[in-house]
Amino acid sequence: MTDPTPAAPWPQPLDTSVTPRFAGLPTFMRLPVMDPADVDVALIGVPFDGGVTNRAGTRHGPRELRNQSSLVRRHHHVTGRSPYDLVRVADCGDCPTHPLDLMESLRLIEAHYAGVAKTGAIPITGGGDHLVTLPILRGLSKGAAVGLIQFDAHSDTYDSFFGQKYNHGTPFRRAIEEGLVDPRRMVQIGLRGSVADPASFDFARAAGVRMIFIEEFVARGVDDVMDEARAILGDGPTYVSFDIDAIDPSQAPGTGTPEIGGLSTREAQALVRRLAGLDVVGADLVEVAPPFDPSGLTAMTGATVMFELLCVVADSLAARGG
Amino acid sequence: MTDPTPAAPWPQPLDTSVTPRFAGLPTFMRLPVMDPADVDVALIGVPFDGGVTNRAGTRHGPRELRNQSSLVRRHHHVTGRSPYDLVRVADCGDCPTHPLDLMESLRLIEAHYAGVAKTGAIPITGGGDHLVTLPILRGLSKGAAVGLIQFDAHSDTYDSFFGQKYNHGTPFRRAIEEGLVDPRRMVQIGLRGSVADPASFDFARAAGVRMIFIEEFVARGVDDVMDEARAILGDGPTYVSFDIDAIDPSQAPGTGTPEIGGLSTREAQALVRRLAGLDVVGADLVEVAPPFDPSGLTAMTGATVMFELLCVVADSLAARGG
Amino acid sequence: MTDPTPAAPWPQPLDTSVTPRFAGLPTFMRLPVMDPADVDVALIGVPFDGGVTNRAGTRHGPRELRNQSSLVRRHHHVTGRSPYDLVRVADCGDCPTHPLDLMESLRLIEAHYAGVAKTGAIPITGGGDHLVTLPILRGLSKGAAVGLIQFDAHSDTYDSFFGQKYNHGTPFRRAIEEGLVDPRRMVQIGLRGSVADPASFDFARAAGVRMIFIEEFVARGVDDVMDEARAILGDGPTYVSFDIDAIDPSQAPGTGTPEIGGLSTREAQALVRRLAGLDVVGADLVEVAPPFDPSGLTAMTGATVMFELLCVVADSLAARGG
Amino acid sequence: MTDPTPAAPWPQPLDTSVTPRFAGLPTFMRLPVMDPADVDVALIGVPFDGGVTNRAGTRHGPRELRNQSSLVRRHHHVTGRSPYDLVRVADCGDCPTHPLDLMESLRLIEAHYAGVAKTGAIPITGGGDHLVTLPILRGLSKGAAVGLIQFDAHSDTYDSFFGQKYNHGTPFRRAIEEGLVDPRRMVQIGLRGSVADPASFDFARAAGVRMIFIEEFVARGVDDVMDEARAILGDGPTYVSFDIDAIDPSQAPGTGTPEIGGLSTREAQALVRRLAGLDVVGADLVEVAPPFDPSGLTAMTGATVMFELLCVVADSLAARGG
Amino acid sequence: MTDPTPAAPWPQPLDTSVTPRFAGLPTFMRLPVMDPADVDVALIGVPFDGGVTNRAGTRHGPRELRNQSSLVRRHHHVTGRSPYDLVRVADCGDCPTHPLDLMESLRLIEAHYAGVAKTGAIPITGGGDHLVTLPILRGLSKGAAVGLIQFDAHSDTYDSFFGQKYNHGTPFRRAIEEGLVDPRRMVQIGLRGSVADPASFDFARAAGVRMIFIEEFVARGVDDVMDEARAILGDGPTYVSFDIDAIDPSQAPGTGTPEIGGLSTREAQALVRRLAGLDVVGADLVEVAPPFDPSGLTAMTGATVMFELLCVVADSLAARGG
Amino acid sequence: MTDPTPAAPWPQPLDTSVTPRFAGLPTFMRLPVMDPADVDVALIGVPFDGGVTNRAGTRHGPRELRNQSSLVRRHHHVTGRSPYDLVRVADCGDCPTHPLDLMESLRLIEAHYAGVAKTGAIPITGGGDHLVTLPILRGLSKGAAVGLIQFDAHSDTYDSFFGQKYNHGTPFRRAIEEGLVDPRRMVQIGLRGSVADPASFDFARAAGVRMIFIEEFVARGVDDVMDEARAILGDGPTYVSFDIDAIDPSQAPGTGTPEIGGLSTREAQALVRRLAGLDVVGADLVEVAPPFDPSGLTAMTGATVMFELLCVVADSLAARGG
Ligand SMILES: [Mn+2]
Ligand SMILES: [Mn+2]
Ligand SMILES: [Mn+2]
Ligand SMILES: [Mn+2]
Ligand SMILES: [Mn+2]
Ligand SMILES: [Mn+2]
Ligand SMILES: [Mn+2]
Ligand SMILES: [Mn+2]
Ligand SMILES: [Mn+2]
Ligand SMILES: [Mn+2]
Ligand SMILES: [Mn+2]
Ligand SMILES: [Mn+2]
């Protein structure tokens, strides 16, 4: 038996019955490498950790996400569908970054995503630290602010660290200030952990961001929380940003700023699946730091969350385009 | 103080107050090594990974399960009972296997378990990849199909891989085809994860197997699910097969095909305890792959699940024999 | 931006915007080292594993708890308060121990804590194996028995091991016998795991200790269980002892006697927070064994639990002293 | 500054000043993926461990060799030359294998290398267990026996294991029996370690193989030993087979059959460099088992040895072709 | 092919062609478990670390030495001989120890070895920390002082630590004081590392012990040093004590007191082989601490050194008894 | 027994017989924390990895060097002397750095060392990546160029990477260009590994730097090489820079740019000891990257090399000042 014949004429992940999962180059989901211009959904790596203030290592994230994504197969077990039968998906390689120059990296990333945006492909990014979301949003911007749902232990709305405005604790403050994100269409889920300054939440709250701390999430459950989140996000274009540290460090230890008491992967999957039907204009999975992930569990979890995101996007695109 | 005097005159685990748990040979549960003919329940290792299609290593499973089982003590904390006071249990050594010949291994395992079956001892196996369940069922077979409850992330009812009919993704299809298992008395719990081909579930469904995916399990809970499972299994002879990958990879990372969002050990223990009173004719704990388990947590979890299975079997035997 | 100006004039953790968290000496919570006489709450290490009967290593616990505590910031995310704004807290160094002489270590620890008691500072200890709680209670004793709440997989009320009365399986039996703890004001939460002798629970039960096994905890939930616990503990002076093995080994693998099916960190945090307002006279976090914790997750979890305990104590002191 | 302009017009490793070494797909040496027909030297992976009798894992070897080869740069520091300036080199992908069928894998490998041989490209292989050398030799064979130099802790000239003629302890006995290798032009260096049967050496000795045990190597040194080896190998076509276990397990722990007291990497490099000028018709680096190599040191060592082999081959080709 | 038929009628290691090396119980060298009275050489474990002053863990040494000894085969590759063909060897189990009582452990070990001495079997011990050598020497003593050769980074002739006379830094001072060892027939090889008190060497020097520091060893080489050592040891009864920390921490990281710049395994093997023909009355391999040896390399090295010691003893016994 | 009474009245490492090595805060060598103004030799950490182009992590270097330095004792085993008896030494804390701003970090480091220079204390630094040597040299500069001996696998004389002049591949080119180092009094030992551009060596060679590749070192040996090096360095002020990657990755795996075939620790110690008597004005040990050093071996090696450097400096100071 080989894998079933794909329903679509475009490139597919390597057939697991022909090329064992330990063989072949570790591209995202074992997909071919293609140009964004030729796909509907572009899987892109951003190898970067210049925005990290404590434990770095996310520069190695894309490589290990690709490596572990060999464990992911074609069809989603709940829907039974394969995203590769619905839309054209490929590994579109790594975004250029500069390992020694933070500000230059922001420019490189913005330019790269502006190029992707021109193709019309929806990017799903494997980071990289969370600062990368800022230049991605800049690159994707078509002028109007987008909605944003963020899964994260941290609000990332600090003003600055060490007098520096651009780091992985500040991207969403900058994005709001720059008009990239509409804070009234912005939701954060999974917040927790001790903070240097609780006033850091004041900016977000004042701007209109809906912050759902882990305690509220636990009390209400996935469905109630997501009903509210979907109401806030509405039908407009929406970006999805998933910081792997939203998930508990027992299931995602390989990250720079772990906080105990986090989401289970079971909850994370349920949350992502409730994004079905939204107008997702881009998504990312960030903060996987392989040097702190010797077992590969974090990257494996991250790759699976990327697949869940891909399924949501593909289903949604197929529904609209269908 | 020493461990309490056993209530039974037969061999017992080493007394932890005489031989520290770090001392002595690592037999299963620190029990003596005996012949199956002299026990009621036989703990057996099957060091084998010839059926693995991606990440191997379960050939080292029995050794590490034994090693970690030194952490398990005599009495179950819920029942207060010691299985060793109820029935005769021993480590009956490893089943022969052939590291270079899959088909010969199937023959060796079948023959070994046929020998065990003759003694009347109930085998509880520490694997080994999941393919070993097939020759075990063959060896134990008395002609009539048995019921089977399987805890697993995967259905293992594929037809073949790489054109090969015997591997760890196919044992239950073969067992049904061979009349070893009655699919109408078969339940699978914990299924999840992306699949190469969703049609793989069709065979099982068509055959009458009750597949309970993790989403249904979470929605209904242990008791509701097990009420149904027990109704399906009924009073007939039943085999219990526990694939360690049913448990979440944060608690059982050391396995070849991990899938996030799995059972917690707490749920797994509750599930196994609800097997109480069934007519268990054999059980196994498979897919522990020590090379991917540097901390030993997976083997420790596996050894504890084996103890839970042993307690269920011992209680049941005592109740019947009593 | 720097960390906000502390509300209090006394020493504070290093400012994360001036000294990165990877820099500086790893004291508890990055606090200055001070004498207990100059603080309200004293964070103290007890590097000791002389009481361990199986897997040792807790002698290295205090160092790694300090190391990982660099990840903890000033303010609690639920209350928004910083304990350092409410009371004077410092790292008061390590208690002397003798690595080759168990009984001498008991004397050294008792003497050290008697000295701390004289200062009026409330000690929060990072152990060390659980035996250290006994000499701590002796040192802190003012004659009358105190109440005690213990989070633990084990009751630690055995009589002896290998004929030895003082080890990490016996401290609470000794404490009750010595009149240090009032067993009718004593609660144990999270008990589970196979036991060498179920009769070990009889002593505790007969003495009046309320033992809440994990199964009861799961059935009732945090609030119901803690309502009962608070009723038992009442308003009197109460000691809090948190054995890290109360938490599931997937979240706290680095300990000598792990038992699957344990508390989640989410539950543990909720439990500790429900201690708010009690008259806590001392607390400890014990059984972190770094040699079995290569990723540091256990020490990170332990350090965070110490912070949760600190917040409870600081809030309580502030409320009383206010 | 960027990497210097290559002296040759053909594809080159990614420029480290444009694409950081942590970025991009991990091909061998960061080279493009090409067809063997378009290169002079073909770097090929053979993901296979079906021939292993104890600790498997070499199926993951090619992926990790590629991953670690990102650390290798263009120019050899002793010669100053870049092989990529001398000949056309590329990553020619993985050879097909069958994870469940040893004999079918032998056929697949032989066929693949027969195809490579037709192109005239010289293959340098990253294994895979040592059995893969047999079908490689079969595939490359042009009828006449070749010379062979083997770096290995083991002679690999057993007759069989478990009654099986094809496994990683037997390839060179088979190769001699099949007339693929001329035993009088065959040298083994680094032999050591306890043996199941010292008579296993008798076949090799009788056939005329020159076996140089580690003790003789240490007594004589690199130059003396290699002078003799070169005299034995002569000018004829020669295959080079490097088993990573030739190197000491402190420098190459990730292998299935480690033996203490091995070659240092310093010695290994010196030995390989002394192959300069030989008529090398193929080479391999085998037995890297990533599951036993958590730090990646073994794969990094293996990738560097592959680079040393590549430099020897490129220099030799350039000298002849020049 | 199976392993060759042993030349002797007594028990042998498991045949690697019948029982794969990953199968079966991990006894020393896969030998049967027997009573010392029935063998010529008794392999014995002493699971103990009560004498450690810094990093413990050697209580787990015997188990992991046994585990890794599965990699050792029957015949020595230099001599071609199998010790099991020359003398009767078995795994004689673990010596009793008390995990909470150092002085009682000394009594238990002495008594156990006194029992072994009565049988006439020569014990080769796998420790355990180095303090165990003291009670072993006491137990083996027949009144007259023996000669002793010690491979160690440390002299272990301190007077006391923390006021305690019995710990792993003092055994040889005690042994000399007690007349168990004749200091004029005592040699130490491999000494190095910073010391708390250089005067610690004065006792040994004054007593007549020949201390060979690593610098002298490097300058002179194995043969010159061993010529002198053999002259000092002479023909009288001699005990061999091998502290694994004599070997460099890159090759033996899993020990409590590592010192860089140590013996290579190659040198260690050469040194041990030069003991050939001595009248060895006992030997040990101590200080393997598995919690600091995640890869198992140290235990594998230790098991191989035990095999080298066994070969020396067996050859010597055969020569005398022959 | 306690450690011997120091010969000097100033602060000393904690007494190992009073405070076990696992206890107490991990300062460098367990020394007190003091101001550089009060010491002769200042041990300083520079937690920084902003100059790394591939694998980062050296920001965590100082903490782990301190942690592992607890294993180092007071007296050198060859000289018998304790540096703490000769000169005043202390842990002078960490130099300020900016985790997000490379150029600001260079300013901070320069300013800090300028301050140290004013006190007259000789700094021995634990890095940090190798770029830190540049601002250290700037801070220490008194106008005249100093001599420099560098132990390193790499020359670190590239011009730039990614168009950036300041990174860990360029410090010594900058130092020469800026007149901080006299290239005719500069020696590099241990160079090796493939290079992006062999022309990178041309700058150094043209400037007059003596580059000793590993092959030359092996051929000549420690003494011959150091005789030459000392002749080049002469009597003038000399800085010593030790990149841990000079040492072989089997003994120092935890570094960003490992190269096989390196110095053994035995050789490294011998090399450092041959610096005796030089006029050392400062020294550093850089490139320890703890995230790639799970066992701590690299940091332990680094701490020991720092001790060797300290002994050389102390002996030299004592000889001059005596
Ligand atoms: Mn974030
Ligand atoms: Mn976050
Ligand atoms: Mn399965
Ligand atoms: Mn499964
Ligand atoms: Mn406890
Ligand atoms: Mn406990
Ligand atoms: Mn080989
Ligand atoms: Mn080999
Ligand atoms: Mn010793
Ligand atoms: Mn030693
Ligand atoms: Mn450098
Ligand atoms: Mn370097």
Automatic annotation (TrEMBL), chains A, B, C, D, E, F:
<dbReference type="GO" id="GO:0033389">
    <property type="term" value="P:putrescine biosynthetic process from arginine, via agmatine"/>
</dbReference>
<dbReference type="GO" id="GO:0046872">
    <property type="term" value="F:metal ion binding"/>
</dbReference>
<feature type="binding site">
    <location>
        <position position="245"/>
    </location>
    <ligand>
        <name>Mn(2+)</name>
    </ligand>
</feature>
<dbReference type="InterPro" id="IPR006035">
    <property type="entry name" value="Ureohydrolase"/>
</dbReference>
<dbReference type="InterPro" id="IPR005925">
    <property type="entry name" value="Agmatinase-rel"/>
</dbReference>
<keyword id="KW-0378">Hydrolase</keyword>
<dbReference type="GO" id="GO:0047972">
    <property type="term" value="F:guanidinopropionase activity"/>
</dbReference>
<feature type="binding site">
    <location>
        <position position="156"/>
    </location>
    <ligand>
        <name>Mn(2+)</name>
    </ligand>
</feature>
<dbReference type="InterPro" id="IPR020855">
    <property type="entry name" value="Ureohydrolase_Mn_BS"/>
</dbReference>
<feature type="binding site">
    <location>
        <position position="243"/>
    </location>
    <ligand>
        <name>Mn(2+)</name>
    </ligand>
</feature>
<dbReference type="InterPro" id="IPR023696">
    <property type="entry name" value="Ureohydrolase_dom_sf"/>
</dbReference>
<dbReference type="Pfam" id="PF00491">
    <property type="entry name" value="Arginase"/>
</dbReference>
<protein>
    <submittedName>
        <fullName>Guanidinopropionase</fullName>
        <ecNumber>3.5.3.17</ecNumber>
    </submittedName>
</protein>
<feature type="binding site">
    <location>
        <position position="130"/>
    </location>
    <ligand>
        <name>Mn(2+)</name>
    </ligand>
</feature>
<comment type="similarity">
    <text>Belongs to the arginase family. Agmatinase subfamily.</text>
</comment>
<dbReference type="GO" id="GO:0008783">
    <property type="term" value="F:agmatinase activity"/>
</dbReference>
<keyword id="KW-0479">Metal-binding</keyword>
<keyword id="KW-0464">Manganese</keyword>
<feature type="binding site">
    <location>
        <position position="154"/>
    </location>
    <ligand>
        <name>Mn(2+)</name>
    </ligand>
</feature>
<feature type="binding site">
    <location>
        <position position="152"/>
    </location>
    <ligand>
        <name>Mn(2+)</name>
    </ligand>
</feature>
